[in-house]
Amino acid sequence: MDVGRTGIWSIELRTADPGEIRDAAAELDAMGWGALWIPGLGGGDILGDSERLLSATGSTKVAVGVLSIWRHKAAEMAAGHARLRQRFGSRLLLGLGVSDPAAAREAGHDYRPLADMGRYLDELDHAPALVPPGERLMAALGPKMTRLAGQRTAGVHPFLVTPEQTAATRALLGPQPLLAPYQAVVLERDAAAARTTARGFVSMFLSMDHYARNLLRQGFTEEDLADGGSDRLIDSLVAWGDVETIGSRVRAQHQAGADHVCLHVLGSGSPPPPPQWRELSALAR
């Protein structure tokens, strides 16, 4: 599935007023973004929310980044994906994640992430209407999960990664699988204001073990993860500044091996579409 070079990742495209979402999606489609990404959040009607975006757009792909395998049964996802595929063609990319041990315990299971994901993929493969490998991907961070994604899905959607980590992921995946990293951005030239906005979002993930371990693998230290994140950590994970500066980070991700970069605008403080999406539209193609 061709998702283009850039896309918009947005919580608001799931949570805002449905009419506002449809209007925003149509405008983003007209801007030429390759894909609209929505998070799995805590579950909910991810297929219905995807259908709303597919209905409002003509060619832009819709990607889930990502749903928890503990909150969505594989058979239901496969059936829903098949229904939407019949109506809209191959425009829905299902992103899959193993979440964390707490999510597994809530579902009544032990947490064995590699085996758990493998079993979920098996269920998708053997469903009456299977989800084609090219229309699913994974939120892989560690090397074993990344290799599994390259073998059994379209590729990976890594969260909170630097261009250097993107290059390392590309080396693990090889040249063919899709590599679509998440990239947080703040359209703000003042360093203090930009870092405050960025830290307000990033800090919530620093106490989560799987994200913390991945950041340490990327070369950050425990000190970088303390107190909401050091300036070094924030500047490495969040692109801030004007459109040209943010475009430089997008190019760095592409040069490191990314096929597609998902831009999440932080701190918009407004319903969709925030004005920042329009400012960033030069990066859509």
Written account of the structure:
This protein is globular. The chain has one domain (6-283): TIM Barrel, CATH 3.20.20.30. The protein has helices at 12-15, 18-31, 46-56, 74-88, 101-106, 113-126, 143-152, 163-173, 191-202, 209-217, 222-225, 231-237, 243-255, 275-279; strands spanning 6-9, 35-38, 61-68, 92-97, 136-138, 155-156, 178-179, 182-187, 238-241, 261-265. The model has no long low-confidence stretch (mean pLDDT 95). Helix 3 runs parallel beside helix 4. The chain has 285 residues and is an alpha/beta fold.
Q: Structurally, how many domains make up the residues?
A: 1
How many H/I helices? 14
Gyration radius, in Å? 18 Å
Largest sheet: 8 strands, parallel
Which fold name corresponds to the CATH topology?
TIM Barrel
Question: How would the blueprint of this fold be written?
Answer:
Elements: E1 6-9, H1 12-15, H2 18-31, E2 35-38, H3 46-56, E3 61-68, H4 74-88, E4 92-97, H5 101-106, H6 113-126, E5 136-138, H7 143-152, E6 155-156, H8 163-173, E7 178-179, E8 182-187, H9 191-202, H10 209-217, H11 222-225, H12 231-237, E9 238-241, H13 243-255, E10 261-265, H14 275-279
Parallel strand pairs: 1-2, 1-10, 2-3, 3-4, 4-5, 6-7, 8-9, 8-10
Helix pairs in contact: 2-3, 3-4, 4-6, 6-7, 8-13, 9-12
